[in-house]
Design goal:
The chain is α/β, with parallel strands linked by helices. The protein is built from 3 helices and 8 strands.
């Protein structure tokens, strides 16, 4: 990949691991495999944010890329949260997660690490998975798809013409 090409990185936070991958400007996945690092979510949200930075750096190194190529970062997490990434109370999460501003704190950590602003957006994990699968299935963005994700709860995401349906 040429140094000037911009990429968009996705960070999937789970209970035990963080997965990192991305897409290029043509919506094509950068890698067929996700780079994984421990999430340390059982320690608390600060430890997880540190691991987001570790995962990002590990992924970029593996891909032969630099942070200068990153145009934006998307972060997702399981459990209840508002659209801005403020985590709500959940019985299966460390108590320090309640009220944690995941999007804002991740953005702060990235700025501190790279010395420039990188836009960070938040989405719940099922919506993010649906969006990712739509990129893999149809990079042109014309696909209509629904992803159902059974797990501890039941979640899903709907993507229409490359855009996430919310509400």
């Amino acid at each position: 990949m040429a140094a000037g090409n911009q990429v968009f990185i996705g960070v999937d936070i789970g209970g035990t691991k963080i997965g990192v991958n991305g897409i290029d400007g043509a919506r094509k996945p950068l890698s067929g495999e996700w780079t994984e690092v421990p999430s340390n979510s059982h320690i608390g949200p600060g430890a997880t944010v540190q691991q987001i930075v570790v995962g990002l750096k590990t992924f970029l190194s593996r891909m032969g890329m630099t942070m200068d190529q990153v145009s934006g970062l998307g972060v997702d997490s399981p459990g209840p949260a508002d659209i801005n990434g403020r985590i709500e109370r959940s019985a299966n999460m460390h108590p320090d997660w309640e009220g944690f501003q995941l999007r804002d704190r991740t953005e702060d950590a990235i700025v501190k690490e790279v010395g420039r602003s990188v836009p960070v957006v938040y989405e719940n994990d099922c919506n993010a998975a649906g969006l990712w699968e739509s990129f893999v299935g149809d990079p042109s963005g014309k696909e209509v798809m629904f992803l159902l994700a059974p797990g501890t709860g039941l979640g899903g995401g709907i993507v229409i013409n490359g855009r996430l349906l919310r509400g």
